Structures are given as structure tokens and as C-alpha cells.
């Protein structure tokens, strides 16, 4: 590449990274989706002593004490959620974590790139893949996927600290440098324990992190070299395997629902393992199902503008069917081409590895990450939008690491530069088009303080103090106890913030909404059985029969136990 090429790549890298960061900041306007609040409701062990689901109808598994290594994460969640009980904080944290992820990726690219031009190319491709379609908006969702891909990126970054020698001049990879320096015991322990801590954080948030354990182990193995570092690496890996066994048991048992076969069936139908356990499919059918279910492009499609986004997390009918298909097809091609180059680079790196008898870390960790997303892909039946925010960031990390594999195939690097020059401008165009599609409605939503007509399953980001005053006014009308003294309150996405510190709150989706409440047919009977302190939620979310008994303050209704009566039948 000549100097003009170098300047062109550098300018394009700055433009694409700036565009993606701007799109992430614009994510502040995205209303808070119900699942972002729901996960906070389900990981409350520091407040309640146990984690729970949306309600207690699954039986003993509903209320589960997490393993000891998960408690720091539960404390972190409890501290920030109770000190900043506001939808605005959820969105600020989501945007901040998404920006942090991009920063981590750029830092990683700075380490694994072997020249200025290659670093620019890798940065353009990485930022472009995260900037296409509505991916920037998915990245700001404050769900368990965020800490998982943040932990994975941080672990790879820590491991990469010892990969390069000064000036990238170490043979035998013709400028592809691997440092011959041996790590001191102190350095080995520090890196190994930091990666272990990141893995434990990921395991604390969701079962999905179990699939990334091989990648974390590879990071520990490649973070330090030499016999003096062996003890630290083996100890960290042993502790990680023990935590994985404990965490896997916890997550599997917690997601079972022995006391409610309706909910259990709903859980089981979402993945092949559940269907096998329920007897929906046989072991013989499982192999064919797995082979036919390997469709990574489905996640790319979830990150494209859609006619009818899941639960209207974005406004519906902003694109036509043909436009949606065009978006999906174009984005699939870009991801497919990037993945194809990654596979070619991986093969080249593997050949060089066999020839030079040196095991390079980039292709190995890339393979571990691809394996994690592949296992999740083949196991899932329902592929929701938020699954894309788990699979695609990890797939991007896998692609970038594979592209940096050591090989001597100069044409591959040359044509990869051409790919970057093509996808960079397309990403900038995508950001502009998405802003035109959704920007006006998101700006309208930002001025709303209660109901969002375009987002019935989301809540406004701004102005919660007005809603809080109405919520507490309703609570006083019903003579409800203070939040710290209340228990098993029936709340919704908005009133949960006001009663964050109550004990074991139940979400209206799992008690009143017919699609999630399982065998609960009488909400009042359920609440009575759990000695509930009452119901407080948006009036429009309340069953009509209950609304007749409720006291109202503004947009919020409440019912205290003395006013329940017999309650409506389901």
C-alpha cells in the first residue's frame, strides 16, 4: 500500500469509528425495553437473599441462592439499581458499556495489527460490522449480553499484552511478531486472575457465558509464557472449571419449572435441549435438527430494520417488506464476505502454525469464540432480537482475530483492504438511513412521560420523576407500606423503579398476562397465597376487573389487600 492508500484508510477508520460512536450516543433516545427491566427483577439476590423469576409459580427453583462467586455481581447490581432507580440510568449505563466495548475492540486491534494499514483495515471492518443496520441500538440494550461480550473482549485484550515484541520484528513469521519474552510469576498471576475474574463476572449474568469458557481458558493459556507462569495458569484454569460446573448447575436448575408445566413447556420449546428433554424430538432427530439449525445469518437479519420488530422495540412499518429484505440481504453479504476472509486467514494461519511449529493465539481464540456462537446458534429455536446482541459482537471478535492470523498470503491482505474500503462507506450510509427511519419517532418518544404509542412494551427514558410522584401518591392513597417494608408487590415496568427495594416483587407479565403466567388463573388468589402487600402499576396494564376496585392517581392504579375481595378468575 502506498502513502495515499495509508492516508485513505486512516481517514476512513476515523470516519467509521466516529459514525458508530455517534450512533451509540444517539441510542440514549431509545426507550427502555421491558426485558432490560425484567433482568434486573431476576437477579436480586443481594436484596432478597435469592434470585427469582418474574413470579414464584415455578416452585422451589424460582427462588435460588446463587453460588458464592456470583455475589459480587449481585451487590454491584443492587447498589446501582437502588441508588439510581430511573430508566435514564439504564440507558446511560447501556450506552456507556457499548462505547466501552468499541474502545476495547480498537485497543485490541492496535495490538494484533501488524502494520498501520492493517490496524486501520481491521478497525474499519470491526466498527462497520457493529454499525450496520440497527446494531448500534441493540448494543445499548442493558441486558446480560452486554457484560458477557464486554468480559470476553477484556479477556482477549489482557491476554494480548504479551503477544508482540517491540517493533514486530521477531522471526519466523516475516514481521508477524510473537514475543519471546517469558512472563514473571507476578505478571502471570496478575493476568491469569484478571481473566478468571472476568470469566466469573460473565458466568454470573447468564448461562450463555458457559459457552465462552473455552475462550476464557485459551486467553489464560496465551496470556503468559514460560515454566514460571505455568502454576498461575493451571490454578486459574482449575478455578474456572470449578466455577463453571457450579454455575452451569445453577443456571440449568433455575430455568427449570417443576411446579408449572405450562411455563416449563414455554421454556423448553425455545431450544433443542429443552425439546429433547420434553420428548418433543427424539435423539435421532436431534442431529438433523442441529445441522439444519446452523443459520448465523438469522442473527444478522435481526439486526436489520424490520417491518415488525420484536414487541415493537422499534416502531413498526418504517420499512416495506422489499426494503427489509434488501437490508437483510445486503447486511448478510457484508457479514458473509468478512467471515469468508476470516476463514481463509484462519486456514493460512493454521498452515503457518504447522510449518513453523508455533501455536499462534489469534486463530485459536477465534475458533473458541466461533464455537461458542455456533453452539448457541444450533441450539436455539426462537431467535429474538436480543440474541443478535450476544452472537454478533462475539462473531465480530472472532472474525477480527481470525483476520489477524499469521500467514504469508499477501493477496488476502490486499483484497481485505478493498473490502474495508467498500464496507466503511456503506456503514456510514447505513447509519444515516437508520437515523432517518427511526430518528423522528425516537425524538418524539424522548418528549413523552408515560405511554409510548410506538413502543407499547417499552418505557420512556426521560422524566421519570413525574411518574415517581404519581406512583408514590397512589401508594399513599392505598396506605401501602414503604418500599423497604413491602413484599411480593405486583408491579410493572414503571412502578418497579419506585419499589426497587421491596422484597420479592412480582411482575405483572407473569401474573396477569395470559401468555406468560402459566397455571396462574386467579391473580388475587396467587397474591394472597404469597402475603402480597398489594398491586401498584399503570392503570392501562391492569385487568378491567381489577381496575374497577383500584384507586387511581394520574396514570397509576393501586389495590391494597383489604380491597381485593375474591378477585377475578383467569
TrEMBL record:
The chain crosses the membrane at residues 12-33, 88-109, 121-141, 147-163, 193-224, 230-252, 333-354, 360-378, 390-409, 415-439. The keyword Magnesium does not apply. The keyword Membrane applies. This is Glycosyltransferase RgtA/B/C/D-like domain-containing protein. It comes from the Bacteria. Keywords: Membrane, Transmembrane, Transmembrane helix.
